[in-house]
């Protein structure tokens, strides 16, 4: 019986300065597997089982689960391509909290598509898969965007092109940066977090956004990481979304006092992240966040780096 599994890591959408066009994968330095996993085996009829720490937060109806929708969408695309499919049994290990700002839905979607593509002998290339992943992500968030699915699938830090090929470009990484991340335990809907934003931004804000993103990309390629960190400020979403996050301003203030290079909201929140120049600094910020930002027993903190490897397939 053919069987394999796909692990898709958590991710930071936007990375503060790149609203909807920048994303980064996350990997805790202590080896904790922060992400969702999908197992796939041959079967006589399709089935989906959900397990894991946050499985109880998912819809009780299997047909409503995004992984089920991924399977049906994948089969539709296979049929259009004139390729055969067969029923499979899927198991979703739901390890990421829903509405956390860690790319929870993207992780499930990416793991599902990666598992299906590998199981059926890789019928779709990287860009085609990314477009499929973005389409399903859009069904949840209300708009197609790749700032979580791209880094989750490919690893690293990714810049979205707005084109169908290539969908995304990989940016250079700084191996000396550590990310203190903290999920508070509350849930923030991506759709709700979008609704709180203005429908238009003024000229000055648009110019600042473009300037910061341009400087950031140049600085990474030039290896000037101090310059890159200096422009990691969110002028689009954070001024509005931070009102949804209890303790955000205090957490930012502590992070800055500790000397962190940058502090921001991961995706739509409530997860926050601090970019730190050392592991010790990141551990200090993470300890504060654990003590002061977490709201309930679902919350957690990790010290992470950005992995160059994204989704992992294993037998």
From TrEMBL:
Family annotation (Gene3D superfamilies): 3.30.230.10, GHMP kinase, C-terminal domain (3.30.70.890)
Residues annotated as domain GHMP kinase C-terminal: 217-294
A single Gene Ontology CC term: cytoplasm
GO molecular function, a single term: homoserine kinase activity
Residues engaged in binding ATP: 97-107
Catalytic activity: L-homoserine + ATP = O-phospho-L-homoserine + ADP + H(+)
Domain GHMP kinase N-terminal span(s) in chain numbering: 65-156
Subcellular locations according to the entry: Cytoplasm
EC number assigned by the record: 2.7.1.39
Keyword terms, alphabetized: Amino-acid biosynthesis, ATP-binding, Cytoplasm, Kinase, Nucleotide-binding, Threonine biosynthesis, Transferase
Principal subcellular localisation of the protein: cytoplasm
Pathway in which the depicted protein is active: Amino-acid biosynthesis; L-threonine biosynthesis; L-threonine from L-aspartate: step 4/5
GO biological process, one term: threonine biosynthetic process
Similarity-based family: Belongs to the GHMP kinase family. Homoserine kinase subfamily.
Function: Catalyzes the ATP-dependent phosphorylation of L-homoserine to L-homoserine phosphate.
Protein name: Homoserine kinase
